[in-house]
Specification:
Helix content: over 70%
Strand content: under 5%
Number of strands: 0
Largest sheet: none
Radius of gyration: 19 Å
Length: 218
Amino acid sequence: MTVALLTFLHLLVFVYWLGGDLGAFYVSNFMTDPRRSVPERMMALKILNNIDMAPRTTLILAYPTGLALAWAKHWVDVPGYMPVIAAVLFLSWLALAWFVHLRHGSGSELARRLDLAIRYLCVAAFAVAGIAGIVGLRDIPLFIALKLCVLAGCIALGLLVRKQIVPLFGAIREMNATGPTAATDAAIIRANGNARISVLALWVLVIAAALLGIVKPT
């Protein structure tokens, strides 16, 4: 029952990650469409931000659910308290991420910086652990080592998306304040287009992680 439940939870991570990303990807079309009214485009942005919390949530839950499943199936030799510690730490990070989302910048700058620092730390930690497993410095199955590298890549792409959409915010504020112009529309479309490329690459990595979990190369 424990293995079945952990497998189910880890599968939900995959389902809601891709499903949420697909929803946000689709809604972004309404945000960038100059034929839509400003209220419609602002509503699309609000919906996009809320839907996007599904993949942001599952990204954080990918590691603790994966570690717990790997421990339950004896794929990794770690003490039983390690998955519990990971769950507490990553659920704390999840609470921080939701705090940043719900406050929308109001008094959340320190929390936002902490969230970003955790993401950079995770990229480095997962990449190092994964590479160490691939070259034999850590005694973990190859597919888990590869999945750690994939997760590091997913978080890195998420950070890249954040940088790519920075110009979007100023253009959105200007559009909302004074109405759309050719310049604001071009800035919104350009920023969204750049982010879409990174999101598509992220989808490839998420699908690759799911495939690794099924094939389990040794």
